[in-house]
Write the structure tokens for this entry.
Amino acid sequence: MSERRYIRATVFERAFNAVPAFLARLGISVYGSRLLAVRGRRSGEWRTVPVNLLELDGAQYLVAPRGETDWVRNLRASGGGELRLGARRQAFRATEVADAEKIPLLRAYIRRWWFEVKRFFDLSGPEASDDELARVAPQHPVFRVET
């Protein structure tokens, strides 16, 4: 299980996140973005948030750069959700990835989206060593998307 860590979005980041969320609703993916829909763990209502869908070696993953966000907690409770892009809905089950297995996934994620997520990772850069990635792995939940 991940160390409890959560970096709250700033007002600017919330406003910025509205753009890829709006575009995903229109069916436009910005650099791999999707709209993650997951049932609230208390309310049961659908909650949505823009995410970057990592595709690596024929599999799909969701990485939580901010740590234990509400979507992470909801996904753990529900065990699955939907990835949305326009009218397309991809229902999925989620399996949380163990810390020891995260290193290549985090490496691929930060190489692709470093410009966007660098403030959430305590790393030297997109070419961080395995030791650095192993150190931060417990702070960043990762889920395998299984359709």
Summary: The chain has a mean pLDDT of 93.
